[in-house]
Amino acid sequence: MIKVGIVGATGYAGQQLYYILNNHKNVEVKYISAHSSVGVCISELYGNYSNIIQQKCIGMEGAIEKLDEIDVVFLALPHGTAFDLVEKAYKKGVKVIDLGADYRIDDAKSYETWYNVEHKNPELIEEAVYGLCEINRDKIKDSSIIANPGCYTTASILAMYPLIKHGIVDEKKVIIDAASGTSGAGRSGKIDNLFCEVNENYKAYGVTNHRHTPEIEQELTKACGSEVLISFTPHLVPMNRGILATCYGFLKKDVTHEEIKAIYEEEYGNERFIRLLDTFPQTRWVRGTNLCDISFKIDERTGRIVVISAIDNLVKGAAGQAVQNMNIIFGLDEAEGIDNLAMAP
Amino acid sequence: MIKVGIVGATGYAGQQLYYILNNHKNVEVKYISAHSSVGVCISELYGNYSNIIQQKCIGMEGAIEKLDEIDVVFLALPHGTAFDLVEKAYKKGVKVIDLGADYRIDDAKSYETWYNVEHKNPELIEEAVYGLCEINRDKIKDSSIIANPGCYTTASILAMYPLIKHGIVDEKKVIIDAASGTSGAGRSGKIDNLFCEVNENYKAYGVTNHRHTPEIEQELTKACGSEVLISFTPHLVPMNRGILATCYGFLKKDVTHEEIKAIYEEEYGNERFIRLLDTFPQTRWVRGTNLCDISFKIDERTGRIVVISAIDNLVKGAAGQAVQNMNIIFGLDEAEGIDNLAMAP
Amino acid sequence: MIKVGIVGATGYAGQQLYYILNNHKNVEVKYISAHSSVGVCISELYGNYSNIIQQKCIGMEGAIEKLDEIDVVFLALPHGTAFDLVEKAYKKGVKVIDLGADYRIDDAKSYETWYNVEHKNPELIEEAVYGLCEINRDKIKDSSIIANPGCYTTASILAMYPLIKHGIVDEKKVIIDAASGTSGAGRSGKIDNLFCEVNENYKAYGVTNHRHTPEIEQELTKACGSEVLISFTPHLVPMNRGILATCYGFLKKDVTHEEIKAIYEEEYGNERFIRLLDTFPQTRWVRGTNLCDISFKIDERTGRIVVISAIDNLVKGAAGQAVQNMNIIFGLDEAEGIDNLAMAP
Amino acid sequence: MIKVGIVGATGYAGQQLYYILNNHKNVEVKYISAHSSVGVCISELYGNYSNIIQQKCIGMEGAIEKLDEIDVVFLALPHGTAFDLVEKAYKKGVKVIDLGADYRIDDAKSYETWYNVEHKNPELIEEAVYGLCEINRDKIKDSSIIANPGCYTTASILAMYPLIKHGIVDEKKVIIDAASGTSGAGRSGKIDNLFCEVNENYKAYGVTNHRHTPEIEQELTKACGSEVLISFTPHLVPMNRGILATCYGFLKKDVTHEEIKAIYEEEYGNERFIRLLDTFPQTRWVRGTNLCDISFKIDERTGRIVVISAIDNLVKGAAGQAVQNMNIIFGLDEAEGIDNLAMAP
Questions:
Q1: Which domain holds residue B39?
Q2: C109 and C173 together in one domain
Q3: What positions does the domain Semialdehyde dehydrogenase NAD-binding occupy (chains A, B, C, D) (predicted)?
């Protein structure tokens, strides 16, 4: 059994992680930590566990103390709050899978600019592997620190990676228009996230300056070797879960549907969590799953291509991919614990 | 492997059944039938199965022809449409689990009055067992035909059964006020069920004459031996899934919280799918599960008791309970295939 | 022009009031107050006013200072927070219309028990008139302080008042099962009211002890002269607005539909804001309006009657009724400013 | 009083029109027509009118017969179903305001290609004026036939018109990513529009081939004199009303925020229904109104600009703009009957 700790277990991503890990046959959750709920039983916060699971939350201090008891620690925290823990875990040889942003940006300065916080151990960024499993699988196997990708990032990169890598679209003119369910905004008591503020509304936010922008550009730039420039606009949808990314590329040359199809098949044909569809993705068909549905359409009239991807922001966009990373690191079946399909409606 | 057929597989209850049975380790789904989608692949209707499950629908005729290939047939059809199939299955020794209403009412005349249709094989009603597992488990084991309870019925009976059976409340003055998610209205193209008609709305329907009324009264009457009279009012909630039943009883005598608690524990203390809670049930905590959450509160001021139960209308209220019945009949672990908890949010 | 001040203008009820009063041709809103947004322009909080209305919030102190400039002050505050203001307004002869609970309960002790706060000026309770317009219109005309009824209260009393007053149902056995949209929970940053916590969920709360209970009993008791006992259970619906009250009465004697219809016509036949329907009310048809839709059904089988009423919790259940009260007090057309119908969908 | 007829009065756009016109002080609605509800009272379909408005629907034949009794006929019908009526109205001098698509596309052949139906009176296309009020106001005054713009079209053109007209962005590289509430899908009983299919889902549709594409390109092309090429992708949001268009342009040269602001002010500074905002538009702030909220942000990093607009698809995107057109034609205050703000929440 792999022994794990979850730090930040009571937010939406953290509890999704707890949910998955509790059903993972090779895992034992040794502790869960949540600074605002120390001593509170998880079932008091999440009634789905009532009468069945009674694990209590500990604090950050306890989480650090108990590093010796675990093989891997998952972090589902706001950025900039776990530098110390990561360093201690790393030194003890405890694998770190960080669902936050602290180790995603290769350049510490850029991180500090976008996230407006000082990076306390920039030397560990080099140790970290960007945990987008389908693209970095080999590096992940031997990693000590996983920078688990952001939700929008996962949907966006997976959609555009084949086109960028194969030089199909102008990498200087990519546009990604995406929308997310409200769980992406987290589980804190902000007026903006109240039911009455979100329901019957649709809005953009973070226009031109959302923090997932540099992450997407960084990874797509690696794919093609030339600086990629994207416009990224996230929107908030009155639903709990799901991300849809609608991506636009300007074709560098004439290509056929079959040629593009072949490229996606080449990159993703063997991937268990990517479904290349002939219809357009809908968030409901991947809800609660680790799947990423992708399809595309060439617009010959305008010389462009539209690629659409759908994921569950809490699963493939957070906790599910974190477990997928763990499975890779520990040599398990990559789909262990995350092999379910969506339940409808 | 138990070989099963599903007739009416593309409605919301039918596809929930298909979803569960596809994940049931002791089951092979030999065929699915849907009169309006003959030849259509289930993944064209439910994109959650895309690229993964390719089973095609057959018609009612085919479903009858293939009875020889299966051990049990599940029916998820409108009432009055499967008399012929049930008769043929019964004669061939194929177990029948009917999610519809045709065999729930003991008295054929009463059925015909409430459902406004002629019963074609009333002699089979006697053969049928009312499949409320927690109450009729022993009879279910040896049954050939299971009349799987209605969704409101399951929530209502489970809530009030202990109080009625133990003579705690006046059986002539029961009131059950319940509310359901919209999947309970089925998957047909009615204007009343359009998003814009249901969203941002709350309404009662079937006031004093909903068809689940005689079913609830019949089973509660059996529990206490005296005719039970209920007022039952269902409501429609703008959400996909879930039923909450708020039940009111007039106490026949002074009782304490502990006494009532003991009665519920006596009846349900060993039930895996009933959770007796100290907080009030919410539909989200049982969503997607076969659980029934129950709690109660005595109102000393008025001499009454309020009991609240929550289920997922498509699972414990339909497909999940059908599978629970199958598990009982075939001697499997009763929770096989339906042992999951709710995913939040 | 009637000069008004609104204290607590940025909560959901307060802003509804502001919306209505801004469109009221006989009213000038002299000031709005909100302790957490002093100096903030209302359009920064409510973007519907952007570029059009620029009024800034003042604080409680300012609201008291400026009492001399207004004819009537509306309070949309939590209970127990405006005793001082009310007293000062009363002494200055400024009419008070209080959307909160402080002057609704005739007995100060009972108030203190249910609301868990000391009443600072119980002598003013006697001065206050319970502002349920259809029932207390005459008293309202000459009142100085209006205790504007609660939202659930309005729907519940209007539904049952004719039956109770005319001795049709057993006043000791009334049951009221009601449900509300989420704006009823207010506009504060509580986790329980986040979109992801409310959406796809339905729950009861305040079971047997909701604070609207004594208010309903008090007013219905006045109607029949004998103590009325109700069970009242509110529920939370994933929608923004609306209350539906499903009320159950045990008939004292045989009555016909026509007899009951006549009683409702007698009580409400001339009321502009009550619509007696032949179909069952739905919250959407009164959304954004000051209407109360009511219909009933006798259940001869069980000797009971079900009455269902629907209102908009923020309008007839709060701000609209407050304006209706103001219109009565100032001798205006009772429907001035609140004469719109619902917009669908 | 202007005497009007509404043909197609029971769909979502038609009833919105009816709602507005019933409150318009210069209008008398002489008849409403709806082929599937002949003889049915509007309040049976829309309970908001219960007990208050009793107008009955007539059929298409009656609508044509009664042309002599009206000054203007509004059409809220599917495309291709009212050629005959339009011709007869035109000949009789009855003004036509068509909310459908039949007279929007200048080139009949193009219409026939995109809409897959034969145009029966292409000679009338020339008579028709494209009724985007803010841009074509002068022509509208003297028109006989108004081709009222589509919902997505209105939001898209208003957002991009100033930039295209002033040559700020590359007209060959425009991308418009938009999302709509579900009322845009109409009020017919399609499974795709059921609550359970739309709720908790987000999807794109009509990718690269939505019928509003040629309409947007046509009008923007007129604005700059050079062919405009857009990629347009609509999405479906689980809400009733609202459209948000997120538009991307590649800047032809360096411009400052102030320069762009000045251009928008120049074009729209005096428009009563356009609000130029400093924050980003949200659909809720224009819900139920004829307003179009617009704001923009220059992305210097990528040399692009993002413009976001929000409207209510049924009001400014359909019925409200139709009334605005009528007001212009008949020389009324342009905001008569459509001068309300959004009600929140």
A1: 2-126
A2: no
A3: 3-143
Q: What percent of chain A has pLDDT over 90?
A: 100
In D103-236 the beta strands, taken as DSSP E runs, fall at 128-130, 145-147, 174-180, 203-204, 230-236
Distance from the Cα of residue D143 to its chain's centroid: 17
Taking CB atoms and an 8 Å cutoff, what residues of chain B touch D200? 240
* Residue D342 C-alpha, separation from nearest chain C C-alpha, in angstroms: 5
- Distance of alpha carbon A164 from alpha carbon A263, whole angstroms: 11
Look at residue A250 in the predicted model and tell me its pLDDT.
98
Domain assignment of residue B327, yes or no: no
Q: Determine, yes or no, domain membership for C132.
A: no
Give C 133-172 residues with CB within 8 A of chain B. Answer: none
Helix, strand, coil percentages for chain B (3-state, nearest 5): 40, 25, 40
Kindly state whether A187 is in contact with chain C, defined as any CB-CB distance less than 8 angstroms: yes
Q: What is the 3-state secondary structure (H, E, C) of C42-74?
A: HHHHCHHHCCCCCCEEECHHHHHHHHHHCCEEE
My answer on whether D115 and D242 are in the same domain is: no
Locate the chain C residue with the closest alpha carbon to A182. Answer: C196
- Kindly indicate the confidence band of residue D172, based on its pLDDT and cuts at 50, 70 and 90: very high
> What CATH number has the domain bearing residue D241?
3.30.360.10
C-alpha separations of A173 from A114, A209, C75, D298, D323 in Å: 21, 16, 55, 15, 41
CB B16 within 8 A of CB B4: no
In single-letter form, the type of residue at position C125 comes to I
Q: How many domains does chain D have?
A: 2
pTM of the model: 0.97
What pLDDT shows up at residue A335? Answer: 98
The pLDDT of residue A23: 96
Asked whether the beta carbons of residue A48 and residue B342 sit closer than 8 angstroms, the reply is: yes
Q: Are residues A14 and A122 in the same domain?
A: yes
pLDDT tens digit string along A243-282? 999 999 999 999 999 999 999 999 999 999 999 999 999 9
Within 13 Å and on the Cβ side, how many CA atoms surround A231?
A: 26
Residue A284 at interface with chain C, using a CB cutoff of 8 Å: no
D204 interface with B at CB cutoff 8 Å: no
Encode pLDDT of D272-300 as tens digits.
999 999 999 999 999 999 999 999 999 99
Backbone torsions φ then ψ of C148, nearest 5 degrees: -70, 130
Asked whether B70 and B64 are in contact (CB, 8 A), the reply is no
Q: D76-110 pLDDT, tens per residue?
A: 999 999 999 999 999 999 999 999 999 999 999 99
229-258 in A: which are within 8 Å (CB) of D?
A: 229-231, 233, 235, 237-242, 244, 246, 248, 250
Token code pair at residue C225: 């002269």
> Is D57 among the residues known to form the active site?
no
Shared domain check, D207 and D118: no
Does residue C199 lie within any of the structural domains?
yes
Q: Report the largest interatomic distance among the alpha carbons of chain A, rounded to a whole angstrom.
A: 62
Closest by Cβ to B231, choosing from C181, C306, C345: C306
φ and ψ of B329, to 5 deg:
-60, -40
Residues from chain D that touch C239, judged by Cβ atoms under 8 A, are none
Residue C55 covered by a domain: yes
Distance CA A128, CA C201 (A): 40
Residues from chain B that touch A185, judged by Cβ atoms under 8 A, are none
User: Which DSSP state fits A120?
Assistant: S
Pairing type for strands C145-147 and C174-180 reads: unpaired
Do D167 and D92 fall into the same domain? Answer: no
**D172 and D307 fall within a common domain:** yes
ipTM above 0.95, yes or no: yes
- Find, among D7, D18, D21, D176, the residue nearest to D94 by Cα: D7
Candidate from A189, A195, A239 with C-beta closest to C198: A195
Check whether residue A121 and residue A198 sit in a common domain: no
**Shortest CA gap D253–chain C (Å):** 30
